[in-house]
Structures are given as C-alpha cells and as structure tokens.
C-alpha cells in the first residue's frame, strides 16, 4: 500500500476547490495482520459513519455534499460508513477495493452504500491485491483491471487506482466504455456508452 494516497488526493482537491477534507486515521487496525485488519473494517466504517452523522446533526452538513473515498481496505471502510448512514451520502469511490478475503464477504463495498458508488479496479487478478469482481454502480477496469502499464508488481498495479483518481480530479480526462461482459473487459473490446472515470462530480450517475 502507499500512504501517499491521502496526501495526493487531499492536494488535488484543495488546489481545485474550497472543500473540507476529513481523513480517517485507522492505522493501528490497518497495519495489523491482514486477517485482523479485514475483521476490523466494519467497526472502523461504522464509527466513521457515526462521526459523519454527528457532523450532519450538529453542523447541518448535508449528506448530499459528502464524497467518501477509500483505497484498498479503505474502500470497504467507506462502504461500511455509507451503510451506517443508510446509503444517504452522495458518492463513494472505491480505489482498487481489497480482494483477498473479500470475495463473498458481506461487509465489502456495495452499490447500495451511497446514492452513487464507483470502483476503479487496477490489480484484480486471481493473485492480485484488489478485487476483480464488480462491486459498485459503476466499475472501471482500466487496462483490463489487473495489470497496469509501467508496473512490474502487484503493489504498483494496486497504487495506480489512486494515482488515476487523483489525476481525474484535476483533468477529468479518462473515459471508459460500457462493457457487456467481463470477457469484453479482459480483451479490451468494450463498445458501449462512454462515462468519465473518477473525478469529483457529486451528482455523477452511471
């Protein structure tokens, strides 16, 4: 994983617009043995959701203005936070949601966790760090979703998700096409409608 995710996403947002950014520091759970970290995700997510509900009640902060962004295990944390808020937050973006121990896991990121849920999969092979299965309203699989140009290991592939996302907040330049099957994804043969990947649009739908 790469801690630069937090700083990169924070910086591109603050350079672009006037927003409040809240970072959830859950490193004591995240750096534990992987199985323990997986087990800790739902509780971290629930606590984050309760904090956002507190902000909503005390300050009037609207769920319509909230965008939860999580990388790897953090994508599932964001999903659980959204679930705690009964799917009322405007958007969740899961950046290469973690794969090992998450296939079939009821606590993983789901399309019902926010009004709009997007996932960007960059290391979703059978032995990858990310989940290779659709998890959201819209799932992007750049370069097939399992191996990224210029990368020679899973960590590099995995980190590409937040690097792609950070770039799209600034430029909104990466566009995907609708696929009718995972075979079209893996053969790079999708020919459906277009949708921009990533970006900071709170009203995005797909």
UniProtKB/TrEMBL annotation:
InterPro entries in UniProt: AB_hydrolase_fold (IPR029058), Lipase (IPR013818), TAG_lipase (IPR000734)
Keywords: Secreted
SUPFAM superfamilies: alpha/beta-Hydrolases
Record has Iron-sulfur as a keyword: no
Record's signal peptide: none
Entry-linked PANTHER family: GH15759P-RELATED, LIPASE
Principal location listed in the UniProt entry: secreted
Gene Ontology molecular function: lipase activity
Secreted among keywords: yes
GO CC entries: extracellular space
Family in the record: Belongs to the AB hydrolase superfamily. Lipase family.
Record localization: Secreted
Domain Lipase positions: 14-191
Protein name according to UniProt: Pancreatic triacylglycerol lipase-like
Pfam families: Lipase
Record GO biological process: lipid catabolic process
């Amino acid at each position: 994983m790469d801690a630069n995710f937090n700083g990169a996403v924070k910086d591109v947002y603050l350079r672009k617009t006037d927003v409040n950014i809240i970072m959830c520091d859950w490193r004591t759970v995240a750096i534990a043995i992987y199985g323990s970290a997986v087990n800790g995700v739902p509780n971290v997510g629930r606590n984050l959701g309760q904090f956002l509900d507190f902000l909503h009640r005390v300050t009037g902060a609207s769920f319509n203005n909230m965008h939860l962004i999580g990388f790897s295990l953090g994508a599932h944390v964001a999903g659980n936070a959204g679930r705690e808020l009964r799917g009322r937050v405007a958007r969740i973006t899961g950046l290469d949601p973690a794969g090992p121990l998450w296939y079939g896991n009821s606590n993983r990121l789901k399309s019902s966790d926010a009004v709009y849920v997007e996932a960007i999969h960059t290391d979703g092979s059978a032995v990858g760090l990310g989940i290779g299965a659709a998890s959201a309203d819209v799932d992007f699989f750049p370069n097939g979703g399992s191996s990224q140009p210029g990368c020679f290991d899973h960590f590099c592939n995995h980190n590409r998700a937040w690097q792609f996302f950070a770039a799209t907040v600034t430029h909104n330049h990466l566009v995907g096409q609708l696929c009718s099957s995972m075979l079209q994804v893996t053969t790079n043969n999708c020919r459906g409608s277009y949708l921009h990947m990533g970006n900071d649009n709170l009203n995005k739908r797909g």
